[in-house]
């Protein structure tokens, strides 16, 4: 069974850089599973920043929806999934069955042979969003993080670029 590590934190907390370092400590090469979709210039710039950090030891796979299938197809080396909250957002906006997709993901984890490092945002630590869609997303992200954390061997909270071991 693969080791599962969840790294969570706020925006610009250093969680992605930490997750990259953790993933590379697990093998000589790794798969980077990107869930982001470049819909605007700001997201394109963020994706570009992340790509610039990665060296040739990474193989990038874009998986805005089929995360379980992509994890299964890349089970020959450690994987970094960046990030669960963008994946969840993609599912919600595409009117996909988030519960079924999450169940499929959780059911797959025990069958994997190589480690997976998940990145996710902690979105519920700020003000209460003013609209129902944003509140629903906040709640769904919090529940997704809880479920992945329960399945994980390790959980780390990134704060100001520093890792805090939670589990």
Structure report:
This protein is an alpha/beta fold and 167 residues long. The chain has helices at 15-24, 41-53, 67-73, 84-93, 98-108, 132-151; strands at residues 4-9, 30-34, 58-62, 79-82, 116-121, 154-159, 162-165. The protein has a seven-stranded mixed sheet, sandwiched between helices.
SSE layout and pairings?
Elements: E1 4-9, H1 15-24, E2 30-34, H2 41-53, E3 58-62, H3 67-73, E4 79-82, H4 84-93, H5 98-108, E5 116-121, H6 132-151, E6 154-159, E7 162-165
> Which architecture would the CATH scheme give at its second level?
3-Layer(aba) Sandwich
CATH superfamily: P-loop containing nucleotide triphosphate hydrolases
Tell me the structural class. Answer: alpha/beta
Largest sheet: 7 strands, mixed
Named CATH topology: Rossmann fold
Distance between the termini: 18 Å
On the 0 to 100 scale, the average pLDDT is 93
Estimate percent helicity: 40-55%
Q: Domains counted in the coordinates: how many?
A: 1
Our estimate of the beta-strand percent is: 15-25%
Give the ordered list of helices and strands. Answer: EHEHEHEHHEHEE
Number of distinct helices: 6
- What is the radius of gyration? 15 Å
């Amino acid at each position: 069974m693969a080791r599962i590590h969840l790294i969570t934190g706020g925006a610009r907390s250093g969680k992605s850089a930490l997750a990259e370092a953790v993933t590379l400590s697990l093998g000589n090469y790794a798969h980077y599973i990107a869930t982001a979709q470049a819909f605007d210039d700001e997201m394109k710039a963020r994706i570009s920043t992340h790509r610039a950090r990665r060296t040739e030891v990474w193989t990038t796979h874009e998986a805005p929806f089929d995360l379980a299938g992509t994890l299964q197809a890349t089970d020959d080396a450690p994987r970094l999934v960046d990030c669960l909250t963008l994946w969840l957002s993609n599912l919600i906006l595409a009117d996909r069955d988030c519960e079924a997709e999450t169940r499929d993901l959780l059911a797959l984890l025990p069958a994997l042979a190589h480690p997976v490092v998940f990145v996710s945002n902690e979105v519920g630590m700020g003000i209460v969003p003013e609209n129902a869609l944003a509140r629903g997303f906040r709640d769904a992200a919090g529940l997704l993080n809880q479920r992945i954390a329960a399945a994980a061997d390790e959980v780390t909270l990134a704060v100001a670029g520093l890792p805090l071991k939670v589990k």
